[in-house]
Amino acid sequence: MKIGIFFGGQPREREISFAGGKTVFENIDKSLFTPVPIFVDSLGNFILIDNQYLYKNEIREFFPPPAMVQDRTYSVYVESVIATEGTDINEMIGAIGKKIEPQEFKNYFDIAFIAMHGPQLEDGAIQGLLEWYNVPYTNSGLMGSAIGIDKIAQNQLIELTLHQGKKSLTLTRLHWQKTDKLALFQKLIGEIGLPLVIKAPHQGSSIGVSIVRENDFHAFVKAVNQCLFIHSISKKEWIKLDEKSKVQYLQKLTNVNEGIGMPVILALSESVEDELNGHLCHHPQEVKERLDFHFRFGDEEMYMISAESETQVLIENYIKGKEFSCGVIQDEEGNPIALPPTEIIVGEIFDFNSKYQAGGSRKRLPMEASLDELLEVQAKCCEVFKQLQFKVCTRIDGFLTEDSQVFLHDPNTIPGMSPTSLVFKQFAEIGLNPTQTITYLIRASLQARLETGKNTHQLWKIFSELDKSIDNHQNEREKLPKIALIFGGFENPQASLLKVRKEYAKIASSGKSVPVLLYLTGTPQAPQYYLFPFNLLFKEDISEINQVLLADKHPLILETMRNAKAITKKYATEILPKAELVSYDTFVRNIDEVVNLTI
């Protein structure tokens, strides 16, 4: 069965989508599926990409192809090169793969695995396109996706479901440009209170989120404009930059995960009227030249407005409490099951870098709270999942306050699939490794598509075929050779941990053998070998592993495992409750191959 893995895309989260697509490609069960990587460029082209490009660090390393870019002063996306250098897009696509059209999808794959995030990819647009061409796809359908990308609608529906009593206000850009901004700020302080949380309402992840903590009017204006993807610079700020600093400034502005991206409109104010009379710039070099010219003769502040700017922002009260993220999945009957909530420990806010960059935040799984509080979090997440028409798997973020109140926000219908993503860590606690998790997501998605009453005969055929393959694979698993992966050791156990994670994924996804983890600790004179539960591979580092190595499972984990036991039985095997001290000589008698990954 061929799985088209869709990654990349137009939105600001294209780089994390690129990383997620690579993770799915590497971890998908090769004995059940043939992965077909489909790169979606920032112009919306679908490209059957050569596998080699999956292993680049970021999209801009291979697309636009460096050999086809004349000006390499800046690292830019293809839209900037096409608009300014006139390079033929089809020639660029041909350098990395083959362009395919939606009507051709079924010639290349049976199911679309969507590893993309943000507008057009997580809002029902790509889902609708796939439904039009009768291509089944993963995760939520049209309704759940449309709700999942709209933070304003989410707030309203979550309030109707849970009666949270959160204070919020929607501010349109048109009202923002006409209103007395200082009076508005004082009104918000009085009605909502500080700190204020300001969000771009149609971005995935935490892109376009600001917190105004103090009674600082200038910080408030900057935060609102940031969430509208409007940036300003004064003559004083610009002329103090040397040439190198100007390039660095504009490069940061161009980076979609921290700036406003390209193209931008240069205007004399943030108003829509001035935007329409402004100049559209597709390349940072063009922005530089126009800013140089403008400030050579004029003193007026210049505004840079994203061509993909928001037209409104969501302003909310700040919730003080423990921040968490909780995945919700579905059983065979479609009932929601909440996975163990993960506590996010960060300095300021769980933003893009905290979520997706290694070391961006610390995680505690499950969240540090009483069992009753944790069960309440799970129950409320399940209720929101059900009422907002989500399907298959959704990550729901929230806060637990000191007085045990639970506040939920920002459901994410396509959880991140990068190696650091919470979804894999939470699935591991019910016994599914990343390979088995991906299989679950594909099969559960087929089941969700069957509920729509469209193309049901063909969907039943695919679903039945996959079910037989999964059952056969499970039955044959006991006969597969076992490969012991020894890691830890005495020299550099942290580096060994990184190696074993990659090797474990490689073996598990092959479907040809079973990886068995053996953790070496102690001393060279008195080594100790532990049969190791794979879920502990997802702990932050070796020190955390050593802290929990022999600990009993948390009561919430045990309860969640009971709720999900049918899922675990379908996709995985028996779970090792905790690490077990074993004799090496006795252990290897039942092993077909030993791989030493200690350093």
Short description, anyone?
With about 600 residues, the protein is of the alpha+beta class.
Give a verbal description of the structure.
By secondary structure, this protein is an alpha+beta fold. Strands 14, 15, 16, 17, 18 and 19 form a six-stranded antiparallel sheet that branches. A five-stranded mixed sheet has the order 4-3-2-1-5. A five-stranded mixed sheet has the order 23-22-21-20-24. The mean pLDDT is 94.
Oligomeric organization of the protein chains = single chain
State the CATH class of the largest domain: Alpha Beta
Tell me the major beta sheet: 6 strands, antiparallel
Class derived from helix and strand content: alpha+beta
CATH fold annotation of the largest domain? Rossmann fold
If classified by CATH, what would the architecture of the largest domain be? 3-Layer(aba) Sandwich
Alpha carbon gap, first and last residue: 39 Å
Separate helix tally: 24
What is the number of domains?
Answer: 4
Query: How does the overall form come out from the CA principal axes?
Result: globular
Number of strands: 24
